[in-house]
Amino acid sequence: MELMMIRARMDAIDRELFALLEKRMDVSAEMAAYKKAHDIPVLDEAREQQMKANILYMIRPETTDLLMGIYDTVLATSREYQTRVMGKDEK
User: Fold this and answer.
1) Which of the residues 63, 72, 79, 82 could staple to 32 if both were Cys, CB 3.0 to 4.6 A apart?
2) What distance lies between CA 46 and its chain's CA centroid?
3) Whole-prediction pTM value?
């Protein structure tokens, strides 16, 4: 396969990935509104640990450390966005 074709596939995946990340941020905003209305803190460590455990079953072992690093960033970004939506200082 030519390099240009591989790059085109990667670009298509990036478009899908970022569309999904935007949807995730939309849900984070909904979550922030709920948490603010019910005086619930942004960070729920037990929930995050549960989410990470669930993700481990979805990824190949050889990519676990790399993809879990990305997922940690997704979770941190979601918390930061929720904090912003709630109008609070971070942490």
Assistant:
1) 82
2) 16
3) 0.88
Give the model's pLDDT for residue 24.
98
Residue 65 has pLDDT above 50, yes or no: yes
Residues 39, 20, 22, CA angle at the centre, nearest 5°?
Answer: 55
DSSP string, 67-86: HHHHHHHHHHHHHHHHHHHH
Q: Are residues 32 and 82 in contact, defined by beta-carbon separation less than 8 angstroms?
A: yes
Structural domains for the chain: 3-86 (1.20.59.10)
Question: Could you tell me if 21 and 74 are in contact, meaning their C-beta atoms sit under 8 angstroms apart?
Answer: yes
Q: 55: closest CA among 45, 68, 37, 42?
A: 68
Q: What is the pLDDT of residue 91?
A: 45
The structure tokens 């669930």 sit at 54
Whose tokens are 């729920």? That residue is 44
